[in-house]
Amino acid sequence: MISLTIGLALAVSIAIGRVRKINIGLVAIPFAYIIGAFFMHMKPSDVIDLWPTHIFFVILAISLFFGFAMANGTLAEIANGLLYRFRAAPVMLPVMILLVSVLISALGAGYYAVMVLMAPIALLTCRKIGINPLVGALCADCGGRWGRTLWSASTG
Questions:
Q1: Which end of the chain is less congested by CB atoms within 10 angstroms, N or C?
Q2: Environment class of residue 126 by beta-carbon count within 10 Å: exposed (0-12), middle (13-18) or buried (19+)?
């Protein structure tokens, strides 16, 4: 019965988040509290201790950073600058996205910062030049993962 309740709460959270265009996690937190405290008879402090607060703060910080960069036009300006610089050889753009992602990650920004900064740029630029956006996103992802393993990175 609890599994069914959890699955239903998850489905409702996803539906509300998609319809209202808000973060699904913000909708799921009250459901988690209600299910834990009332259905599973846990103490409220035990329910709160189970929440992954470290991951929550990382995602919150990344979302805020991405929101500012998108709102003030930084991401679009960087994407347009990359398109202008590689107008003669647009197929080299994913390679440059990979190398820039490695550099940013290796300098200490880390994988999550690379994904926040480079993945939207990769998607925008690859879509504009006719390359599959998945290729650009994969280059940003692989570059971030590759760069974080280097000795100069924060996790290397």
A1: N
A2: buried
